[in-house]
Amino acid sequence: MKRIFAAFALAVLAAGCHGQVPPASSAKVVLTWTAPVASGNWTGCTTAAPCTYAIYRATGATCPASTSTAFQEVTTPTARPSGTTWTDTTATGMTVCYIAATIQGTQNSGPSNTAGPIAVPGVPLAPALGTPSTAVLEKSPGCFDCFTPEQVNCWEGSCTAPLSLMATLKRR
Prior knowledge:
Elements (H helix, E strand, L loop, with lengths): L1 H15 L12 E4 L19 E8 L12 E2 L11 E4 L6 E10 L2 E2 L6 E5 L33 E3 L2 E3 L12
Antiparallel strand pairs: 1-4, 2-3, 2-5, 5-6, 5-7, 8-9
């Protein structure tokens, strides 16, 4: 039983450094636009009457008409951008189209032109690892049998104390 534990502990240590997959990353879409300029009786976006922008997204291989109900707002009224750029980090693995509208107080502009379709890369799938069928403990040349309760590891012909394994789960 002690030999099985030692073999298992060494197998875990040998595989532990080589079977790790890097954390997944996600793609993002960065939208930019030109702020509307004053025209006619509209005085434009000012400090006294600031503007924000509502961003709408539709999914699919082709973009629908900008007036389509397929476009759903992806910004929230309290987090609409006031500048001329916005980043969508939630479109990973989708094909998307965007429109925007200028919001000033309770007034909304019509929809902008359509940007897209944009095929956003997906996150790679994790590999499927096979189940090992055996674990083998190999001794170094000249190593003598040192499988006692206090001495289970044999390196370069000498025995050392057993290894203590501990795993800690950390939230990112």
